[in-house]
Amino acid sequence: MDRGLLLARWRVVLTDSGLLLLMALCLIPVWKDGVTWRNAAESLVVGPGVVALALALLAAVAQCAGLARRARGGGLPVTVHADDDTQTLTLPGRTWRPEDRDRFKAALLASGRTSGVEETPAGELRFQWRPLRSWRFVRATVSRDGTTGGVRLDIRGGEEQRGRDDRRQPGRHGFRLPPGSSFVALCQLVRLVECGRSPGRGAGAVSREE
Q1: Percentages helix, strand, coil for the chain, rounded to the nearest 5?
Q2: pTM metric for this prediction
Q3: C-beta separation of 181 from 63 below 8 A
């Protein structure tokens, strides 16, 4: 498990929920024993603080393990860059001929995770991809890499694209997606390219570009 990613996730958990958790834990000894100087010095500071740090660490470990599970078997390293909004990967062993593009496009439309699929004159496929269970999308481009001739995947996260189960409506801008959403989408799309079928909850990858 990448230490940098674990620490980054730990900070996110503490920032998002640590303060609320600390406040809730601090109220427990006051409710049970009343307000005393000893409670204030010990129970309200040391105990809840340690518990909050430990729970946040456990949550971060679980999140990192979830990312590792999605990338398992494909060779895609799970590093601190897994939380980046932009993910780029080239699959040098795959071709991007018209028939490959058509096959991948058909797999995209059959996956149930896509919205707004478009094909450019240059042969790129641009679409929105739903990496999570909610109807929130990242933007993705699949094209031929000019250097290796393989398949190039570009994922852009950041602001979420919301949409419905209607491919005629590409969605709209909203709040930011959770960290790691672009990486999850990358794992799913690599599996779709490699297997030619709709991805499940697993993942796969081969050659990574940072």
Answers
A1: 45, 20, 30
A2: 0.72
A3: no
DSSP for 121-186? TTS-EEEEE--SSSSEEEEEEEEE-TTT-SEEEEEEEEEEEE--S-TT---EEEEEPPTTHHHHHH
- Nearest CA to 105 out of 120, 93, 84 is that of 120
Q: Which helix or strand (DSSP H or E) is residue 56 part of?
A: helix 46-71
Return the closest-CA partner of residue 193 out of 208, 180, 207, 204: 204
* Best CA proximity match to 6, nearest among 66, 72, 60: 60
176, amino acid identity: R
Distance CA 24, CA 30 (A): 11
- Between the two ends of the chain, the Cα-to-Cα distance in Å is 18
Take residue 175 and report the two structure tokens written for it: 């709040």
Task: Count other C-beta atoms under 10 Å from residue 78's C-beta.
Answer: 23
How many CB atoms sit inside 10 A of residue 77's CB? 12
Residue-wise pLDDT for 49-94, tens only, equals: 667 778 888 888 998 998 888 888 556 888 889 999 999 999 877 7
pLDDT category at 143 given cuts 50, 70, 90 is very high
Residue that wins the pLDDT comparison between 87 and 191: 87
Query: What angle in degrees, to the nearest 10, is found between the helix axes of 46-71 and 19-33?
Result: 140
Helix (H, G, I), strand (E, B) or coil at 86: strand
